[in-house]
Amino acid sequence: MANTAQARKRARQSVARNMHNSSLRSMLRTSIKRVRAAIASGDKAAASEAFKKSMSVIDSVADKKIIHKNKAARQKSRLNAAIKALA
């Protein structure tokens, strides 16, 4: 357990930060699932629309360093390739 005031404050901050980051990570996963569901349904227009919305979420989460920028690029690339393969 934290013994100093500084350590107690850091513990409180880390709990708050963890909750916020978990929320953003969940939002990221949900947006990717929406794109994958649209791809699975075979609807290219819906998949493209979902992908456009998810791109901003992916970039936002990467900018906040919740995921690495290369992981964000990889996810966008794979989703885009899957959408192109629907043709």
Automatic annotation (TrEMBL):
Q: Where is the composition biased (Polar residues)?
A: 15-25
Q: Which residue stretches belong to region Disordered?
A: 1-25
Q: Does the keyword tRNA processing apply?
A: no
A Pfam family annotated for this UniProt entry? Ribosomal_S20p
State any GO CC term: ribosome
The entry's keywords: Ribonucleoprotein, Ribosomal protein, RNA-binding, rRNA-binding
Checking HAMAP family in the record gives: Ribosomal_bS20
What does the function comment of this entry state? Binds directly to 16S ribosomal RNA.
Family label? Belongs to the bacterial ribosomal protein bS20 family.
Question: This protein is called what?
Answer: Small ribosomal subunit protein bS20
Organism this protein belongs to: Orrella daihaiensis
Q: Which gene encodes it?
A: rpsT
